[in-house]
Amino acid sequence: MASTSLSTRSDTRALTPYDGDVLRPSRLLMAEAGAACWRIVEAFSRDDAPFALILRWSSGCGAGAWAKMSVSRAARTSVFARSVQVEVANLAARDNRVAVTLADGFATTRNRWAQPALLDAERPLRVSIPPFADRTRVELAEPSLASTTTLSLLDGLGVAHATQTLAAHPADGVAIAGADALELRAVAATRLRVVFELTL
């Protein structure tokens, strides 16, 4: 019987400051075993700073699945995997040492991906939906615009469904179901972040 023991179980990387432009992921860990089992992945900042986590895993020999998560200080998730790859990107304007550990086991977890953006009053903003997202909510830098800013769920043909103002959205967000993308419209420009609840 093939062993579930991983080739490596922990690592740390020092990330350079984030300039607010594009994310620059760095590989933190790549581990592989002879057989799959449940793995608990824990990632944390040793400098108490935010970072993005990109996780790729496979239970067999193929490419497998992937997910991305926004992390304030630390995060935990569980995947059924034979191989695990972890990438991280700094979200702080200072040096950030990020570490990851892998353990065999399962834990029920919930994580999020937050996508910051600038919404222009001149044109709609289309936001792609990350893997494993099941609900979303939009948080505005100018909350007074919630009653005039709309969110539409677009299907795979680009047709808008379930258009509502942000003020009408339930507190736990909007179910994404089979949507292909989100589309936001506003009467005035504002900064925002789209927060996706992940089933991981």
SSE arrangement, N to C: EEEEEEEEEEEEEE
Estimated structural class: mainly beta
**CATH architectural category of the largest domain:** Sandwich
Q: Show unreliable segments.
A: none
Mean pLDDT: 96
Q: Which fold does the CATH topology of the largest domain refer to?
A: Jelly Rolls
Strand content: over 45%
Count of the separate structural domains: 2
Provide keyphrases for this structure:
single chain, globular, six-stranded antiparallel β-sheet, 200 residues, 2 domains, four-stranded antiparallel β-sheet, 14 strands, Jelly Rolls, mainly beta
Present the secondary structure layout.
Elements: E1 10-15, E2 26-45, E3 51-58, E4 65-71, E5 74-90, E6 96-104, E7 111-119, E8 125-128, E9 133-140, E10 150-154, E11 160-165, E12 174-175, E13 181-185, E14 190-198
Antiparallel strand pairs: 1-6, 2-5, 2-6, 3-4, 3-5, 7-14, 8-13, 9-12, 9-14, 10-11, 10-13
Q: Can you walk through the features of this model?
A:
It is a single chain. The protein is mainly beta and 200 residues long. The protein folds into two domains: 10-109, Jelly Rolls; 113-198, Jelly Rolls (Sandwich). Helix content is 0%, strand content 57%. The protein is built from no helices and 14 strands. A six-stranded antiparallel β-sheet has the order 1-6-2-5-3-4, with no helix packed on it. Strands 7-14-9-12 form a four-stranded antiparallel β-sheet, with no helix packed on it. It has a four-stranded antiparallel β-sheet with strand order 8-13-10-11, with no helix packed on it. β10 (150-154) and β11 (160-165) form a beta hairpin. It is globular and about 60 Å long.
